[in-house]
Amino acid sequence: GLHEWFDALKRSFPHWKIFVSNQLSDHEYTLGRPLFSEEDVNKGNLHFNKDLHLSVSIRSYRSERVAAFVKSVLDLNVETASKLYMEIHKQYPIFLTRDLNIARNWLRTQARGTERYGLVASSGAIRLKPYGINVKASIDPSYWFLNKKSDIRSSYFLEDVATEFDIQGLELDWACVAWDADLRLKNEMWSFKSFRGTNWQDVKQDDAKLYLLNSYRVLLTRARQGMVIFIPPGDSTDATRQPEFYDSTFAYLLNIGMQVL
């Protein structure tokens, strides 16, 4: 991460001049630990430049505020997320659903011509498998992103799912983000989970928690024109898919003001 860059520069290249954005202070960048010290600033080698902050989203050309909305959602900032949702929803539709077939149908009706749509999920979304979403089944990104609607390997078929590893740095026109219990809300805080063996286990390392949160950040910012978020209803007969694992997250997004299909 960024800490390693700054540590390496301090250790091996102390004579270099370093130019950075003046907004490298958010927790998502710093993990609560400053990237540089006052001593670094006072030495005169560290220079801040507001123009280095990439504040305009090219991916989401319908709304430059989608990234800010996603950030506020993941930061659990309900007030800001609600305000941004109201601002962007007409230009950049975002919906919730608990029915995957409804999500699939919505994508098909939104896309025009060759506009591409697809299904994405976290690489840790192991318990989406009962819904036909198997994140352990690898895809060929070239087929998934480029092939036509007649090819079952393409994103258009909405059968093969792309994870953050497949889709980072790339984008779709429309996306369905399938949200599993690896990131769930509990007591108004994110609860980070990893599925090991037959059970969900707590993610304890801060770096791993940040990685998981950023995985969802990637997934929620892949669509240029709009997205639908599928949150499963769960199954009370399955200990790994209890409704409570999903209901609180759905209720949180609902509280933001997100509309349901």
> What is the number of helices?
10
Poorly predicted parts: none
| Strands side by side in the biggest sheet | 5-4-6-10-3-11
CA radius of gyration is 20 Å
Amino-to-carboxy terminus distance: 38 Å
Q: Assign an overall shape.
A: globular
Which sequence of SSEs, written as H and E, runs from N to C? Answer: HEHHEHHEHEHEHEEEEHEHE
Strand content: 15-25%
* Strand segment tally: 11
Helix residue percentage: 25-40%
Biggest β-sheet strands, sense, barrel: 6 strands, parallel
- SS-based structural class? alpha/beta
Provide the residue-averaged pLDDT: 90
Describe how the helices and strands are arranged.
Layout: H1 2-12, E1 18-20, H2 27-30, H3 38-42, E2 46-48, H4 66-74, H5 78-88, E3 94-97, H6 100-110, E4 117-121, H7 141-146, E5 161-162, H8 164-167, E6 172-178, E7 183-186, E8 189-196, E9 199-202, H9 206-219, E10 223-230, H10 243-256, E11 259-260
Parallel strand pairs: 1-2, 3-10, 3-11, 4-5, 4-6, 6-10
Antiparallel strand pairs: 7-8, 8-9
Helix pairs in contact: 4-5
